[in-house]
Structure formats: C-alpha cells, structure tokens
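Table S7 (text form). Paired inputs.
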Amino acid sequence: MSDLIRLLIADDHPVVRQGLATLLIPRNGVEVIGEAENGRQAIDLARELQPDVILMDVVMPDMTGIEATAEIKVENPDARILILTSFSTEDKLVSAIKAGALGYLLKDAQPDDLFHAIRSVYRGQLTLPPEMALDLLQVSKQPDELESSLTERENEVLLAVAEGLSNQEIAQKLNIGANTVRTHISSLLRKLELTNRTQLAIFVTEKRKRE
C-alpha cells in the first residue's frame, strides 16, 4: 500500500467528494486519505495529513480553493496541488497557477485524464491546458533575453525545478545546501520576472518547444 498516491479531496459538494473517492480507489493507484468541504478545512487537513497530492475545487465557502492553495504553499512550498473545477476561464487558471497549483483540470474530463493528471502532479510535472501555458508566463521581455542573464548554476537549478524536484532533492542532486537552493530560486524568479516555481517549470517547457 506504500506505493499508493495519498490524496486529499477538497470540494464543497458531498456528491462530488463521494464520487471522486469511489472513482479513485486503491486499484487505480490512489488512496483518498481525507476530504475537506471548504478551503479552511483543506488547509487544516493538508497540515495534519501531509498528502502527496491535493485535489482542490475553486469555489468553496469560507475560503476559495485558490486562497487555500496560496496558504498551503506558504506553509509547505513542496505541496502538490491539482485544481479540479468547472471553470475554464483564463483568469481562474492564471489565479490558480499564481497561487502555486501545479495542475488545472476541468470536471468534465475523462477518468483516465484525471488519473494521468494526479500522477503527473505527484511527480512534480505540470498539467495545464497547453494552449494557455505561454500566457501564464506574463513576462515583459523575450525569453531568450531573460535567460541570457542566468548563471550556469542557476540554469542547473532551473532544470531541476522543471523536473519537479523539491529544494532538498535539488540540494542533494547538485551537492549544495538547501539555503543555497532557495537563494538560487529567488534569483531565478527575479531575473525571469516570475512569481513561483510553477512558472519556472512553464518557462522551461516553453523554452524546449522553441528549441
């Protein structure tokens, strides 16, 4: 059972939570370890249960899923959150990614797409509508111009972030201290005019498309 992805579901509709819990049974590689009915409860359960992935709705009472995502990421920058919503508008997507979500999926998606998204987010990989990914960068300069200011070490850290590695994993891979990793990430965000590590990963994805 240790190889199951431990999942926390946050949705204000009991029928949705029950349906997801039934769908995401252990034989599909997922174990639902908790259910939250609002954003505030999602924060509390995320702190208590330390799930591998959080499946987060957007519109919930008390606190929205986007607000909850932002707070969870402040407490645990390595938290992996997949937004599952009925809203396909770009503003919701942009807000979710700025808050730190690693994936965004619509509720009318096929079960296989949901399984794939959960596994991708668990591995630290982006799961986003491809046609909207570039818009999320929102930078004022051309990517090549921004990238030219990066040091060799910063490029190494950037690629490691895109692989979904945590700060500790990056430190071990590059044989540097965790504090040094944080310093490099702060420098990357400043130089690339981005706000979080999810956008760093998008930057690498778009760079590879141009190559």
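Next pair, protein 2 of 2.
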Amino acid sequence: MNVIETPRLVLRWFTLDDAAFVVDLLNEPGWKQFIGDRGVSDLETARAYIQRALLDAYARQGFGLYAIAGKDDGLLRGMCGLIRREGLEDVDIGFVLLSRYEGQGLAYEAAAATLVYAREVVGLARVVAITAVNNHRSAKLLQRLGMTYEQIIHVHHDSEPLHLYAIDFVPPTPPPTPA
C-alpha cells in the first residue's frame, strides 16, 4: 500500500516479497555500524524481520517504517518511517538508504515528507529521532529537517549513548496572563 508520495519517491508498506532487499539493506556497512546487526542474513530471517518489525507495526498502530521506492522505476532505495520504540516516550522517525543512493537528497526528501505525514495524517504533536553519537551525517540531516538536539540518552540500560533530536509541531500553550 502506497502511503506517501514525493516528487521522486513513493513510500509504501513493506511486503514479504521485499525480503531480498531487506537482506541487502540490513547488511549494509552503515546499517551495521549505526543501527546494529539484526541477525538478518537470508530470505527466511528477512521475512521474519519484515513480519515482526514492519507488518506487525502497521497492524498494531497504523504506521511504521516504509519502503522507499523510486517513482520512476519502482526500485527500492531504503526505508523511512515512524517507530514507536520501547524506551522512548515519543514516536521516532528513522531513515536509511542503500549506500549507492546516498548523497542524492533522497533521505531528506523521504524524511521531510514523513514528518508532514506524522503531523497531518497521524496527528502527532512531536516526533523525535535518535542517532549514534558518531553518526554526523544523520545528525546534520535531522537538523536540516528542523529537528533540534535535546540530550544524550540510553534507550536501554546497557545501550550505547545516543543523541536525541526532536521537533514539536504544536507550540506549547502560553501561560495565562495575570489579571
């Protein structure tokens, strides 16, 4: 199911037929360095990952991580979407591309459209993002998207430190004016 369209991209639900792409994406050096090894090494483990991490999220909450496809050719380039992550109070935006598609503005295009979707369709007032402390490219992209750095966090008690960024769509209500 197509969810978001941009001038160059279509963001759609993943299907079990995307298993070969998921094997490639989750074994990219950048994925393993900044996101971690998810134990996806073949079509069987990729299908299990798609079911558990992607399809179940769509069914449970109506949103999740989406496949990024080229509008012109339909080829998959990466994933981008919204995650309700254990250890975070707010919904998190995540994005990743196959390395051959980096540097073309596709991650920005997909993430910017996803933030609009989060605000206008999902109805979120705030979205956060986490990134490895040494993932400077993602940090720069998050700032370009209008997100601001808030703090260093640990999502799990034994996890590596992460930078937390956020964007608030609805300004807080000002305090009442004294009479």
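The mean pLDDT is 92.
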